[in-house]
Input
Amino acid sequence: MNMKRAFYIGRFQPFHLGHYSVITSIAEEVDELIIGIGSAQRTHEANNPFTAGERVMMIRHALEDIDVHFYALPIDDIQQNPVWVSYVTSRTPPFDTAYTNNPLVIELFEEAEITVKQPPMYLREQHSGTEIRRRMLADEEWKHLVPDAVADVIDEIDGVRRLKRVSGTDGFDY
Amino acid sequence: MNMKRAFYIGRFQPFHLGHYSVITSIAEEVDELIIGIGSAQRTHEANNPFTAGERVMMIRHALEDIDVHFYALPIDDIQQNPVWVSYVTSRTPPFDTAYTNNPLVIELFEEAEITVKQPPMYLREQHSGTEIRRRMLADEEWKHLVPDAVADVIDEIDGVRRLKRVSGTDGFDY
Amino acid sequence: MNMKRAFYIGRFQPFHLGHYSVITSIAEEVDELIIGIGSAQRTHEANNPFTAGERVMMIRHALEDIDVHFYALPIDDIQQNPVWVSYVTSRTPPFDTAYTNNPLVIELFEEAEITVKQPPMYLREQHSGTEIRRRMLADEEWKHLVPDAVADVIDEIDGVRRLKRVSGTDGFDY
Amino acid sequence: MNMKRAFYIGRFQPFHLGHYSVITSIAEEVDELIIGIGSAQRTHEANNPFTAGERVMMIRHALEDIDVHFYALPIDDIQQNPVWVSYVTSRTPPFDTAYTNNPLVIELFEEAEITVKQPPMYLREQHSGTEIRRRMLADEEWKHLVPDAVADVIDEIDGVRRLKRVSGTDGFDY
Amino acid sequence: MNMKRAFYIGRFQPFHLGHYSVITSIAEEVDELIIGIGSAQRTHEANNPFTAGERVMMIRHALEDIDVHFYALPIDDIQQNPVWVSYVTSRTPPFDTAYTNNPLVIELFEEAEITVKQPPMYLREQHSGTEIRRRMLADEEWKHLVPDAVADVIDEIDGVRRLKRVSGTDGFDY
Amino acid sequence: MNMKRAFYIGRFQPFHLGHYSVITSIAEEVDELIIGIGSAQRTHEANNPFTAGERVMMIRHALEDIDVHFYALPIDDIQQNPVWVSYVTSRTPPFDTAYTNNPLVIELFEEAEITVKQPPMYLREQHSGTEIRRRMLADEEWKHLVPDAVADVIDEIDGVRRLKRVSGTDGFDY
Output
């Protein structure tokens, strides 16, 4: 069962076409791809409206037809940087390469002697979670920026309504 | 023992006449009222000078003479929004209505199918914890903004002195 | 507002007539009594069937007619003995005497220089949570061992049924 | 995207043919199946030798050819029973039925008004994680009790050797 | 500053002559020795009567005259085996060899590619924390089993009295 | 073994000559000095580049030749102010005086009836962690601001490189 496996992490709030293009591109180089859903525990916030479970569902359906075998797995934020890599590796299948542009993640993986590669780039202005959430709040078009399956999931969970509800708030500011 | 019970949450730093007027107003509609003391674990901070225990004491004495049966119970901040409602309901008597204006709390209760009502309003400029703490720091009058019993509690615990001590700090900024 | 306040802690699974007699006896010596609901976070277990909120409700109703002013406040187990006293004192009104027979609690309070007294005894064979839960499981009489208000609360929450459900289990033993 | 989704939870230490037969049976009744990997955080113990990531990998490969769309998602033990259901539902796609025989899990789901069904039975003497781990320790045959893909994963991670190493210990018993 | 550093871990409840002989023996092979005080957070228990700070003090004074440069550092139990090694290495100076007989610790260090050596043995019947605590409780001789400085520390903190107090208890068994 | 012991806390990111001069000055007044390494769990951040273990090593080597007996012990941030003092005292040898300028720390120690003294001052513009980290990032001179041994430790762990890596980031901002 020895395979070439890679790890790629994002918040996916929501999963969009930029993520999709990175993943299909990485997929060409590996046997299996592990997609880490970062800040998994965050939800019902202006910048993190969707639960980990909802994001898993978005990814699984959006990638239904791609050729590579992939895993979509929640990764909680843990507050201690030096144990983050071993936390990740205990919750994922073994992998030998991590794809990331985040400098802290690069440093942590390299200190743990895991190979880091830069993922391919995509157009960040449009294909960003921030822009998509802004459009949702402004009742502008957003569905063309995400895979169809993601739009379906957001409809099923009434996600735009939730985003609007939690955006007018600083959390538990009684 | 089936009764009409409602839940109302605040930080009560300190408990003031605005809170008092909301509570007496809600009290007319219910058999029992559960007062959640939010951010219970926070204390000795510029915005949260009083312990949960001190806030319980303020509320119990301030409401000694009102007619409704009430509970004053600490509710810690927990960092995971989607479990917050079940955390609250496990630490309070059963209730069927929550009174709150906080959009996140409204969303969470409604997703859990608990009825939410807007509490009656009060004059927020004067009757606010922020204003009272500002006056305490500036040695201005503040006791007319809180029930007498609250002023007594703050005197017993030397609360103004503590507020002044912890206000000149960013917490553990060694 | 300086008053003579005492602290008494139990698990109250459920609150029974033994607890009641201890409390009425302590009540004669103090102005206010703080009743700590220990292991507050435990519930839905064979030895801890009731939530903190349900236990608060039992105590408040059972003591409705006693003369002393009392507080019923949840105290979670925390896993670090040496900070337990300061955890308790931050979540309760100030007190000067603790009533307990537990050797660890005695040691911790005495190291913190808080006076400890032995609470008065009661007949432990009958008036014990263990015996009452055994009777509930065996469909034997138990209501004469608790205040009427406690029996009412347990009926309202369908507590005996829950106890039976969670008793045949080792927790999350998948 | 509204679908009939069910939830099934186990520890899967390791995933074996008993699990496989339950899952193929449930799969006939639903559109999607969420497989919760319980006690996800436990690993490197005599009764829990495999990490959450390794168990995800076992399940994904063992079920590669079944017809139903499934998710394999880690579920950590959390120490507070009453929030367990909302913790699970925040980390999984929405589901309407839970399959379990565990009395505590039944009680918690039913209090949260989620339908519970009994999963179909299988021969528990042979098809049990306990028996398989016993055979691994005793160098007896065990591979016929698990799907081929699971045996491959355990070989890849040198799992039997790890089990032997961690079995002679009470954890961190310095 | 590159030096040969080793790591050795124990609970040291209390530090005794067996520990002393192991440490002086390891000290001959290294430039610096890191002594991890395991289960640091446990104290005021029958098997763990002393705080981390008290154990640090015992070790520092007991080893005052040995030649090697050493560190005595608390290591809390953390409940997740796979991150334990990175937790330890983030809280200690860098080291290249770990001395331990504990099978789990051996496995975890070896998976992290840190060299493990067996520490030299000592007579375990007498030189054991268990035996020393038993003697303390029974008012038998124990001071000849520990370095003089350790006996002094235990006297300063009135440790035998504390041990007796916390031994008659199952912790917070209200 | 009764001695005059004092407690002094800092973050030591990194340990510099300002800290050194404070410590040598306090050292004249006490038998033993406990140096608390605050925010111990923070590392690999722009303002907190070094691990607790690395900071312990800096301090131990920098102070090798001073006359007083000292301890360098990690103190994690804990999020509950009122238990902070008992957390500290459980992880340090007993002490009777704390040296600090932090208003919150002063308040907490004084509420716990521990004597607080102001540590002697030093030139804060140059001798500050902030300034030293700024110089490291700008490739300016910084080694003359720290003890030689600290510069050696930072070289051994390749600390400037790590600081540069983690400075271009907001943590786990996927």
